[in-house]
Amino acid sequence: MKKFVSILLVLALTVSSFVGCAKKDEANTGDNATPGTTSEPAKEAATETPKQDVTIKVAAIETAYGADMWTKVSEAFTAKTGIKVELTTDKSLEDVIGAGMKAGDYPDVVHLATGRPAALTETLIKENGLEDITDVLSMTVPGEDKKVSDKIAGGFTESSLTNPYNDGKTYMAPMFYSPCGLFYNQGLFEEKGWTVPATWDEMWELGDKAKAEGIALFAYPTAGYFDAFFYALLYEVGGADFFQKATTYTEGIWDTPEANQAFDIVEKLASYTEKSVPSNANNDNYLKNQQLILDNKALFMPNGTWVVGEMKDAPRVDGFEWGFTALPAVAKGGDAYSYTWFEQLWIPAAAENKDAAKQFAAYMYSDEAAGIFAESGAIQPIVGFADKLEGDNKMFYSIYDNGAKAALGSFATTDPVEGVNFADTIFGTVNSLVSGDKAKAQWIEGIKKDSDLLRAALKQ
User: Fold this and answer.
1) Among 345, 358, 413, 349, which residue's Cα sits nearest to residue 129?
2) Do residues 338 and 407 touch, judged by C-beta distance below 8 A?
3) Which range, 42-51, 108-117, 403-412, is most confident?
4) Residue 35 and residue 16: Cα distance in Å, rounded?
């Protein structure tokens, strides 16, 4: 995971083209910005014509989009600039580059989002190990005549996901993004004559109908997928200001009526969740939980647009058709939110070839690079690019044109606190709520305790 003041307009402009759920990117809306995160292009851009005999080391996580797109983009970048690329891709990138980094051998460019179990990116953030790349926004995109800042959709460089220190500077470049929400089988709804719930009360009513037919209301791949879900829910119960206070660990925030409403919704949703989910909610078996939607054994699951690629070869019931919706509103006429998750690219502060690395970062926003990425289903937050989308992607990226509001942002970065893993505390505990191993009161107690510790460790 923001100056949310402009994000609704931003995403309205961005996604109006797009139109239209990127983890794990995965990264805000209305007035949702963290104060002080407005990013302005630096007065002096990075050197735009580094020596052509440079070879940069690029390390990129291999996700459902595959590794081939990185090979193609690296080759195209070299052809455009003469800068050679030594590329490393792996599904467990942290394991591949982590040891070398500890020994002082850093890549020049890293594509690795926050929110992963190994938390390598978060570690670098906490250790002030990221290069300030604000000047990249002022650079001209290699091979084009536009500045990077003119290409990136508004709001994406005004989020805590790119500006983690609340200092007005950009340290991470927004990459592949994905509207996140609830995925379901549209074919089943048409067959049953069911309507997608507009409110949580309607959600519970539908859950009772589905239960009578042996279908669970809800499933999730892993508890980590509750990040995007919970962020959107925080917006729904309290709006942008509440979200900002919650994600900066404001004292007493978890005792408010808004927080209790969010806790109540998650607790009730846990009671409607397919009971086999927690046992498969891990990196080895999460596809079994996603399969529940394709088999009509559960109605909804939180996810991002990458799920279509992950499940493209999976069996499914006859008449299956992907459906996608924002979270139901907390009350009739209330706002429904869809979180926008995006991945990040960054340059280590200890990188050897920073000028050339910044050229590579700038090239990520070229039409050429965006086209290569899009062939694999990875969509860049580039103004106007969504006009080229087809099929399911048109439906996914049109969610903001269909009444949903966009949520961006995440919990604020802090100095390391021994024994505290807030993502596990606030999201991972959902497994225990579903299994019955923990009660809501225990969940809230853990959140309050860790939030108090993190508040004292906030990055200044």
Assistant:
1) 349
2) yes
3) 108-117
4) 26
Extents of the domains making up the chain: 55-178+341-401, 179-339+412-457
- In the chain, the amino acid numbered 127 is E
**Coil, strand or helix: which one is 1?**
coil
Q: What is the token pair recorded at 451? A: 């939030």
Domain spanning 55-178+341-401: which superfamily?
A: Periplasmic binding protein-like II (3.40.190.10)
d(CA 444, CA 93) in angstroms, rounded, equals: 34
The CA R_g of the chain, rounded to the nearest whole Å, is 21
Q: Which stretch of 10-19, 167-176, 348-357, 395-404 has the lowest confidence by average pLDDT? A: 10-19
Residue 203: half-sphere exposure toward Cβ, Cα within 13 Å: 25
Characterize 119-153 residue by residue with b for buried, 16 or more Cβ atoms within 10 angstroms of its Cβ, and e for exposed.
ebbbebbbeebbbebbbbbbbebbbbeebbbebbb
Cα separation, 195 vs 244, in Å, equals: 33
Which tokens is 134 given? 């604000």
Residues 6+ apart with CB under 8 A from 359: 46, 48, 50, 81, 83, 139, 142
For the domain made up of 179-339+412-457, the CATH class stated in words is alpha beta
Burial class (CB in 10 A: 0-12, 13-18, 19+), 194: middle
- DSSP per-residue codes, 134-165: GGGGGSBPTTSSSBHHHHBPTTTTSSTTT-TT
Say which amino acid occupies 440. Answer: K
Buried b (16+ CB within 10 A) or exposed e, 301-323: bbbbbbbbbbbeeeebeeebebb
Same fold, 55-178+341-401 and 179-339+412-457: yes
What does each C-alpha distance from 406 to 284, 317, 368, 410 come to in angstroms?
A: 31, 32, 27, 13
Query: Which tokens sit at 23?
Result: 């983890």
DSSP run (H or E) holding 254: none
pLDDT in tens, 239-281: 988 998 999 999 999 999 999 999 999 999 999 999 999 999 9
